[in-house]
Design a protein that fits this description.
Elements: E1 2-3, E2 12-14, H1 27-40, E3 47-49, H2 55-65, H3 68-76, H4 80-83, H5 93-114, E4 119-122, H6 143-153, E5 159-163, H7 170-175, E6 181-187, E7 201-204, H8 210-222, E8 229-233, H9 237-242, H10 246-262, E9 267-270, H11 280-296
Helix pairs in contact: 1-11, 2-5, 2-6, 5-6, 8-10, 10-11
This protein binds zinc ion (ZN).
Length: 298
């Protein structure tokens, strides 16, 4: 179901066509459209909301989190080495897409902090590799850091970033104050490794101890003190790139959803990594994986 007004009975997920505005075709720039179509076809009982009313505010927040020269490069395409530093060839749809991805997270944060629902999501990634002055690893603007900034300026005092993407969230850690934004990360790859602050946890898992490590991470999160908001980066690349089974990922999503519900934690999810290595069948399989997150939080 698609509408422009927030549902109070179903989980709202934010998306609009700007999410896929980039000409550059890659999972990060395309898969949200496939997922939105799957939701429209009735494969998850959630409501899709257009976040475009949050665009101007989001651009201000992006300018708070990122350096002016980098933001201007993404908007204009110049200098080219900065404009394409996330790994995509620049086109005028890139800034439209990048602002929309963060707008969805800002809209979701605004919704859950208003108390109208406990959970909301964005069909974007969390984009956790982007730094203040440069993109990295397919991430243009760091949506998690922008969402954290939105929450802090709206009065949240302490936020948990739960990052279960296969790769590390070094970009997010570099952009947020560790006294106010605690980061708990379970990685299956060493890319974008980061140094944990005293309240953080940075765990590594293989395919055989994946769920045990997720359980450990959630226990640590439960003991890490009170949080006003959880930003959950729900990567599917542990499956597509690290050999974790889709059954284990389905269990992971149920575990995270139950844990947040049990602790009555407001939560915003982003879909994060997950790559279709192959043709249409791989693309369909990737949609199925991301729907596990959406269904678990529906
Ligand atoms: Zn990743």
């Amino acid at each position: 179901m698609r509408t422009t007004s927030i549902s109070t009975t179903k989980t709202n997920v934010f998306w609009n066509h700007d999410y896929t505005a980039a000409s550059y075709a890659f999972d990060t720039t395309r898969k949200s459209g496939d997922i939105a179509r799957a939701i429209d076809a009735g494969r998850a009982d959630v409501v899709i909301i257009d976040p475009s009313s949050h665009r101007e505010r989001t651009l201000e927040l992006i300018r708070t989190v990122h350096d002016a020269i980098y933001v201007d490069a993404v908007l204009s395409g110049h200098p080219e080495h900065l404009a394409s530093s996330q790994g995509f060839t620049w086109d005028s749809g890139i800034p439209t897409m990048a602002i929309a991805h963060s707008s969805g997270l800002v809209a979701a944060v605004t919704e859950v902090l208003s108390g109208s629902s406990r959970v909301a999501g964005s069909l974007s990634s969390g984009l956790h590799h982007a730094r203040a002055g440069t993109g990295r690893g397919y991430c243009t603007f760091n949506g998690l850091a922008v969402a954290a900034e939105a929450a802090l300026t709206a009065g949240a005092e302490r936020i948990l970033v739960l990052d279960l993407d296969a790769h590390g969230g070094g970009g997010t850690r570099s952009l947020c104050d560790p006294d106010r934004v605690v980061q708990i990360d379970v990685s299956t790859s060493g890319f974008d490794a980061w140094n944990p602050a005293p309240s953080d946890a940075y765990l590594f898992a293989g395919k055989d101890d994946y769920l045990t490590t997720i359980g450990e991470a959630l226990d640590l999160a439960a003991r890490a003190g009170a949080f006003d908001l959880v930003l959950y980066n729900a990567g599917m690349d542990p499956v597509t790139d690290s050999g974790v089974s889709s059954q284990d990922i389905a269990v992971r999503e149920q575990q995270v959803a139950s844990w947040a519900e049990e602790h009555d934690l407001p939560l915003v999810y982003a879909l994060a990594g997950g790559y279709a290595h192959g043709g249409d069948a791989a693309r369909e399989a990737l949609v199925d994986l991301h729907l596990l997150t959406i269904q678990a939080f529906a």
